[in-house]
Amino acid sequence: MNDARRKFKRETADQRKEALIQATLSLVAEKGVRGATVRAIAERADVTQGLIRHYFSTKEELVTAAYETHMTEMTDLTFTIAAKVQGTARDHLAALVRTSLEPPVADPRAVALWASFLNKVQQDAQMKATHERTYADFRDRLQDLIRAALDEAGQSVSDTRLHHLATACNGVIDGLWLEGGALPDAFAPGELPGIGVESVGAIIGLDLEQRANQP
Amino acid sequence: MNDARRKFKRETADQRKEALIQATLSLVAEKGVRGATVRAIAERADVTQGLIRHYFSTKEELVTAAYETHMTEMTDLTFTIAAKVQGTARDHLAALVRTSLEPPVADPRAVALWASFLNKVQQDAQMKATHERTYADFRDRLQDLIRAALDEAGQSVSDTRLHHLATACNGVIDGLWLEGGALPDAFAPGELPGIGVESVGAIIGLDLEQRANQP
DNA sequence: TTCGTATTTATACACTTGCATAATTACGAA
DNA sequence: TTCGTAATTATGCAAGTGTATAAATACGAA
Lengths: 215, 215
Description:
The structure is a homodimer.
Chain A: H1 13-35, H2 38-44, H3 50-55, H4 59-83, H5 89-100, H6 108-123, H7 125-152, H8 159-182, H9 191-204
Helix pairs in contact in A: 1-2, 1-4, 1-6, 4-5, 4-7, 5-7, 5-9, 6-7, 6-8, 7-8, 8-9
Chain A binds a DNA duplex through residues 5-11, 13, 16, 34, 37-39, 47-51, 53-54, 58-59.
């Protein structure tokens, strides 16, 4: 008769929230937002479903928090990796493009998440704001790198032209990122970053593929 | 007391199936596959839910049929529009790129559908096959146009190189298509086709933006 | 060690979901 | 016109959904 009650451990609020968010992200990537049910999330986080209510007053709130976490992590990851590269401005630009199109940034799971969230992003104001913020962040950074690389090559361009170049390069990078994550088998290893560097270089009129000297 | 039974009209099987499929697609675009419930689909098609069972033995079957219809329509649409252009091989290539990145092909709804279906496409064998077939169709066609344009310009390339160029251009086009549909406000009208033509031209080494003479 | 309380589990509820089945009705064939 | 039957509606059901609330327990403070 002793239907032993489940044992549990008390965690800090941050740890539990993080665990619930990660469980949510993995389920959203697999089955979409509606497929990530409260019960499934609780199970994956190894917790009973009532606990979710204790940390997030609603499923909507959990999903929004998960999206925010994911987007921030992605942006940070990209910039962190790319920032490690030493060299000329041209090298920096090439590195950002490469980083954006290689694992762990370019990754089927990340694209699956992007796709799963798209509906909600288009309808929920808060998620839309998060999306636009991270998008603008990336694009401004890219624009700065393009300007620096062109300066370095002795080329000056108007602000209008620079804006156009950044939009074009950003579109190509994001597009290839999506494409690579959606069809990982359509490209040979390393092919996607190569296409990205080639395309971005062609658009702005610099050869990004030739590396500067490195010791 | 006379809870008048709902009046109805008998339609042909094809008409009803088509109506149900269109209702399904519009709901999937808005709310994802799980959000497109049998009851919501029936309501949008102005029919009671039991009827769906009469034409499709399961919701899965309806969703699969809807996906197939959508993908086929998209491919046909793209090729049909692009094929109307007269001119040189270079013009044909430019037209395909432009068509792919303009309405009605490039369109937020189409991208929303793509995103909503992504999960299922990756998991369901039949949908995966449909996806790969339409993808390969487009890419082969693109490759032929690239070869013709290069021939015309007196340039010959190896098969390996041609394959790489087609992959790169296809990635850029699909990527920009996704990007444009996901962020319709990020680009000025006509900007996206311009970026596409510019990028594809840069990748293959031809200026696609200069039109051949047209009467 | 005891005790208080925030954390966690357990249970329940109202509603939605896909699917099944019985009851009606429109419409072509005779 | 009548009549048969396929098309359509109406109703029901078991499983799954998000959320609410009460009961139990781990663990730091005293």
